[in-house]
Write a structure and sequence with these properties.
Length: 380
């Protein structure tokens, strides 16, 4: 059966999640879920043990850093200004944002890098030790997709730090991500942030198809905070890849109980119904799933490939242009457009699209795109 890529909810930028369908890392609703023990992962060998981790633990080096640059000042406002100045890239710590590293507070401090979870862990640990009221904030941004491979699409999500000093509230964020003032956000508890951290660690194993390790960390994420929907969605992906479709459906339903707007769970559940030949149940979800998938540039890429196979060049180009409108910084989308334009006879436009693909390509792909377009199309 042709399936849409697995969708994984990670929080790298913040990001991460997986299965045939969609991924989302949405907020949990006001529902207070009871404890549900996830079904076991079958035929996966000995269970993987996951040690508990304090994501906010301070190291001796962090203590020394604070004593030298922050703690000698009594004013909370001064402490905040000195702390943020010392942490940023041009400061003493020189923190560098890296969306692919999910780290604890002490790890992020030691490495001077990390994604939004790693930075938030580090910043909150330092700020609280400096006597500041610091909390995690989840930002509900427009869905951002990342194409991991032919079988997996990631949905990127984001968290940052809110610090209150007297009547003022400050948002601390080194990601460089543009957040529109109207985008919804909410403060979340430490347990929720820990669940997101463990979810990301689990997804890293899931991307390597290490299902036992991914399962162990995802269970730990659910134990940390059962109100987080992302681990349930990703747990469903794990079950799906292990051919436990009933358990996958249970996990997706649980995610939807927590957050009725968890469209990645809805999309993945739709794929499970198709796999189980429950076409009536799938039909009830189809229109919602299709609307959601149309926001995914890689789903549009898949549709454009199908149109191209049928030599429906205008349709294929239209779909690719819509995909690029949603994500204009992926060389693969621009190359797909160049190829389709070339085959449709639009050679000048094709060369411009190829040039854009080359500009966006990683270093190891530049030489590939330096070849003549006719040769590249022939290779496909």
């Amino acid at each position: 059966m042709k399936r849409l890529n697995d969708i994984v909810n990670p929080l790298l930028t913040g990001r991460l999640l997986l299965l045939a369908g969609f991924l989302l890392l949405n907020a949990c609703a006001s529902l207070q879920p009871g404890r549900i023990t996830p079904p076991p992962l079958l035929n996966a060998g000995p269970p993987v043990q996951v040690d508990d981790v304090d994501i906010l633990a301070l190291s001796p080096a962090m203590e020394k850093f604070l004593e030298r640059y922050v703690l000698q000042y009594s004013s909370p406002q001064t402490r905040l200004e000195l702390l943020t100045t010392a942490v940023i890239r041009s400061g003493v710590l020189g923190f560098k944002y890296d969306e692919f590293q999910t780290l604890t507070a002490s790890e992020a401090f030691e490495k001077r890098t990390g994604n939004c979870i790693g930075f938030s862990n580090m910043m909150i640990a330092l700020a609280r030790r400096a006597g500041l009221n610091a909390r995690y904030q989840e930002v509900f941004r427009r869905p951002e997709w990342s194409d991991y491979d032919d079988d997996t699409v990631l949905l990127v999500k984001h968290v940052n730090v809110v610090i209150e000093t007297g009547p003022l509230t400050w948002v601390v964020d080194v990601s460089g991500i543009k957040i529109h003032p109207t985008e919804r956000r909410r403060l979340v508890e430490d347990s929720y942030a820990k669940a997101l951290y463990l979810n990301n660690i689990a997804v890293e194993s899931l991307l390597m198809n290490d299902l036992p390790t991914a399962y162990a960390y995802m269970r730990s994420a659910i134990r940390a905070d059962a109100r987080a929907s992302d681990p349930w969605v990703n747990l469903g992906v794990i079950y799906g890849r292990n051919e436990q479709l009933d358990d996958a459906a249970l996990a997706f339903h649980r995610a939807l109980q927590i957050d009725a707007n968890e469209y990645s769970a809805l999309s993945n559940l739709y794929e499970v119904y198709i796999e189980q030949a429950e076409f009536e149940s799938a039909a009830k979800l189809e229109s919602k799933v299709e609307r959601y998938r149309r926001n995914n540039p890689y789903y549009l890429l898949r549709l454009s490939d199908e149109a191209l196979e049928l030599k429906q060049y205008a349709e294929s180009i239209s779909l690719l242009e819509k995909a690029i409108q949603k994500k204009d910084n992926d060389h693969k989308l621009h190359f797909a457009l160049a190829k389709t334009q070339y085959l449709s006879g639009k050679r000048v436009a094709a060369e411009k699209s190829l040039l854009r693909a080359r500009e966006l390509a990683p270093e190891d792909m530049v030489a590939y795109y330096d070849r003549p377009l006719k040769e590249l199309v022939t290779d496909q």
